[in-house]
Design a protein that fits this description.
- The chain is an all-alpha fold and 208 residues long.
- The chain contains seven helices and no strands.
- The longest helix has 32 residues.
- Keywords: Membrane, Transmembrane, Transmembrane helix.
- This is Membrane protein.
Length: 208
């Protein structure tokens, strides 16, 4: 397969992952469904594999995310624009998700096929940093701009920020960072596995 064919397959898989898991979100669109929402991981993974297609791949996945939200909200018999999740803060998801996309791009820039400690360090730092920024933009805008919180405070915002970013076993929340890291970790395992298979096949052909 050529690079464009590979990218097209990856784009389709990332889009499928985003749509399939995002559709399981409940009414509020803020809690994890039966299958944890992989949207954040999808944008990070997309930035890694589709960096050269960013001009159209990111907008396409962003449009898909909005479409899925529309389907979920309309499926509940509600007006999309009247739903509290689609306040003016909703559009902060664009820069929030791009932070994840950029984190994936940054990881790709420093990627090494040897999977050395430096590459792993860049991956961890990029993932944690981009998730933190995404949470800052998405949760922060919702907390301060929407009408859901009647009397916002810095202390209230910070607690809400960390409650959703980090695991909270007491309330049954896995946290966006852990869920995103799990999906990205699974993608990394698949990446290494496919790479090893490709190397074995190439070695077999060379000996044939």
């Amino acid at each position: 397969m050529n690079n464009n064919t590979q990218r097209a397959i990856i784009f389709a898989l990332v889009a499928l992952l985003l749509a399939a898991t995002r559709l399981h979100l409940p009414a509020s669109l803020t809690h994890f469904g039966p299958i944890p929402d992989a949207s954040w991981a999808a944008f990070f993974i997309g930035g890694f594999y589709l960096r050269s297609w960013s001009r159209w791949a990111f907008p396409a996945l962003m449009a898909l995310a909005v479409l899925v939200d529309y389907i979920v909200i309309r499926g509940q018999g509600m007006n999309f624009w009247a739903h509290y999740c689609t306040s003016p803060a909703y559009w902060f998801l664009v820069p929030a998700y791009f932070a994840l996309w950029y984190g994936g791009m940054l990881t790709r820039k420093h990627y090494s096929r040897q999977h050395d400690g430096r590459s792993l360090g860049v991956l961890v730092a990029s993932l944690v940093g981009s998730v933190a920024v995404c949470q800052l933009l998405s949760q922060g805008s919702f907390y301060w701009i929407s009408d859901v919180v009647s009397q916002p405070t810095v202390a209230g915002w910070f607690k809400n920020y960390t409650d959703w970013l980090l695991p909270q076993p007491s309330v049954g929340s896995s946290g966006y960072l852990m869920v995103t890291a799990i999906y990205v970790g699974l993608a990394l395992l698949a990446h290494v596995g496919v790479q090893q298979i490709a190397q074995l096949m190439a070695a077999h052909k060379a000996r044939a």
